[in-house]
Design brief:
Two copies of one chain form a homodimer. Chain A is mainly alpha-helical. The first copy, chain A, folds into three domains: about 5-125, MgtE N-terminal fold (Alpha Horseshoe), CATH 1.25.60.10; about 145-245, CBS-domain; about 275-450, SLC41 divalent cation transporters, integral membrane domain (Tetracycline Repressor, domain 2). Helix content of chain A is about 65%, strand content about 5%. Chain A has helices at about 5-20, 20-30, 35-45, 45-55, 60-65, 70-75, 80-90, 95-105, 105-115, 120, 135, 150-160, 185-190, 195-200, 215-225, 245-260, 275-300, 305-310, 315-340, 350-380, 385-415, 420-445, and strands at about 145, 170-175, 180-185, 210, 230, 240-245. In chain A, the strands form two sheets. Chain A has a three-stranded mixed sheet. In chain A, strands 4-5-6 form a three-stranded mixed sheet. Chains A and B meet through helix 12, helix 13, helix 15, helix 16 and helix 17 of A and helix 12, helix 13, helix 15, helix 16 and helix 17 of B.
Chain lengths: ~450, ~450
Amino acid sequence: MLEPSPEIIIERIRSALGTQRIQDAVRILLELRPVDQAEVFNLLTDEEQILLLTELDIPSTADLFEELENEEVLDAVGTLSPERLADVLDEMEPDEAADLLGDLSPARATEALANMEDAEDVIPLLGYPDESAGGLMTTSYIALRRHTTARQAIEFLRQVSLDVEVPYYLYAIDREKHLIGVVGFRQLVIADPGVTVEQIMDREVIYVTVGDDQEDVARVMSRYNLAALPVVDDQHRLLGVITHDDIIDVLEEEATEDIYHLANVTDKDLNPQSPIVDQVKGRLPWLYLNMVTALFASWVISRFENVIAEVAILAAFQSVIAGLGGNSGSQNVAMIVRAIALDKIDSREMLGVIFKQVIVGMLQGIGVGVVIGIGVAFWQNDLYLGAIVTMAMIANMIIAGIMGTIVPFIVKALGQDPALASTVLVTAATDSFGFFIFLGLASLLLPYLVNSP
Amino acid sequence: MLEPSPEIIIERIRSALGTQRIQDAVRILLELRPVDQAEVFNLLTDEEQILLLTELDIPSTADLFEELENEEVLDAVGTLSPERLADVLDEMEPDEAADLLGDLSPARATEALANMEDAEDVIPLLGYPDESAGGLMTTSYIALRRHTTARQAIEFLRQVSLDVEVPYYLYAIDREKHLIGVVGFRQLVIADPGVTVEQIMDREVIYVTVGDDQEDVARVMSRYNLAALPVVDDQHRLLGVITHDDIIDVLEEEATEDIYHLANVTDKDLNPQSPIVDQVKGRLPWLYLNMVTALFASWVISRFENVIAEVAILAAFQSVIAGLGGNSGSQNVAMIVRAIALDKIDSREMLGVIFKQVIVGMLQGIGVGVVIGIGVAFWQNDLYLGAIVTMAMIANMIIAGIMGTIVPFIVKALGQDPALASTVLVTAATDSFGFFIFLGLASLLLPYLVNSP
């Protein structure tokens, strides 16, 4: 959507800055929408960013900061005077300002709050965890009393700033700020001017409580197709509103977390360009866990050292059994984890699913095992070896079906994200069992193997 | 949010149906919101569903159908007469009606369209692929001409049905239906009644073209935080509007697809309870691909058959090197795939990322390799074997860093989803290379190994 491309815009800004036409550079930047400004700003050098910020007006700086990522905005904030930072924070949406304040050093945050004019909008938001309903909500919404007429409401709307972040619904509250109803903007517009809020409001308001987890909030909004969702405290008093765009971020974060957990990366904020130390921290612990399970599988193999010493070619096929079993198990884990995440399955249905996955595993085991068994029999000119490969494959894929279904449910029952650790545990099972069943069958049938001594 | 629980509501409905009080059962169902009705409806038996549908009024049936999943609604549709089905389709949102018609048999769909009154709203939507902007959009939006005044617009709004699906924005079009601007609902409300649409509209409308892929549509809506997004044809004529709730579905679908592709499950519509045949179809082809790569790795091992015959314990450790390398590679793939999906990386940055991932791989290789090398050295009382394990582990994790970064970019450059096949190809590399480097080093250092003959 960004035309001309960021590169061309950056060239224009650079050439303006290079000849000290800073105002021109700012004008080029401001022709873009804030999110596009952020993209371009981010590609500039620190010196160029500082030059632009000196001339950018306060409201535009606030818009820009709202669109920058956390680390990027922290870099930019460092160059502002405390007074200017406070002015910018006053102009930002309260929820965005609160997020930024939360990322500053305590000293810097306190200083900024002391200099702010509208600190009272932001302070209530500072105490909530980032990933709770309180951490997502904004205090920038419109609340009406029940006896307000449609005419008065519209008059009120004309007076308040157009910048209120929640333009879809109006919330009705009583004297103690209890949430008692919701009015759609359009209902208000088409209502008779003398009608009161109470007469047109919907009393069955869908809401969340301030401590609710962001993932539950996202589920409610997506289930009921809401553009905005009110947040209340335990006494049902209206505290803030969450908007649809926040939910999109939450869903993307949660999807990233699931994908990372399935691949054994702990920290969802990591990306391939994160500092090396952070990447190693988020990944290495899982490799150590994997090391333990892999060593257990090694120990299983080592129990069959004599068999392998006699028929060394077994070592070439043990990994096929283990690897394909692990693959089938990972397919299973991915499907179960996703079904749990999207609320499409619950533990009462587990037995039926296990039964189905055992059948799927068996069929896959037959499908792959027969082909590979025939291939191995011809390649090694050893019918028994081929038969062992087939049998071990079928058995291991049945295990993959069982473990791949049970493990995510167990991890969930332990109060953990089912995506976390499930892959490691399931592949630990398919590796160890795969080696055991293949080498075990081989040792039983050793006298029949072609290469046996 | 559903209180009392679905089970209790189902009991109440069952007891009403059991005593032939069908009207009562319908009333209990209608006390719920449509999405909750769908959840309960879905848990009833076919006979119970048919009984309810005979007494459920047309608009409620339409609301219910909009919330049911594809297969569920098809079951329910089967029990309706052609005339009744046409009436329900008339009441449904045009985009939902078009989706349902697309799932019916051609004969059934033609018959239903012939019986519909508002078929002209739906027919234009039938031709677009499900996963394009055209497949997501609804024709149920409000368009205004540029000279309409705010007062006239509000008067118009009072007349049109409250059921229009897009209550956030009004779109301004010219005589030829070209999209020329957008007006927020609130702007309209607070505008002076005599002001024209042209005077208050924003001319810089963000839009998509009807053939755009749903993933790109979702990116645009989430980037610009839009509650609704207009869809135009090549001539920039307004065809429809996509709303925020459709995008949530798209994002969840795309996340499921990424998770499934990374785990080698092709069909994103599968879930653990899908028919066994479908599950095998979506999973088995990948196991065959994996079989081929696994057999290649077996062949690599078979080249070292003599070495293994002499030092059989090598077979116990080859899998640790291959497995942990594969694990590290999968971590890499997940991070790259997610960064590509979220547009946080592009191929120009690839070299820098490869460099970083090589360092990460090396550090992880040292971190795991030294520990495991010492462990193996003590366990097998063989210093050289430990050293070989350490060296092979470091080398394999460097390969994991390189391949885990390059492969997703290559798959993407080939026009495929980078999540697809990347895991298989990367683990093929770490398996084969892992076996090769470990067994290769062992054969070079064979005379020094404790158990060597």
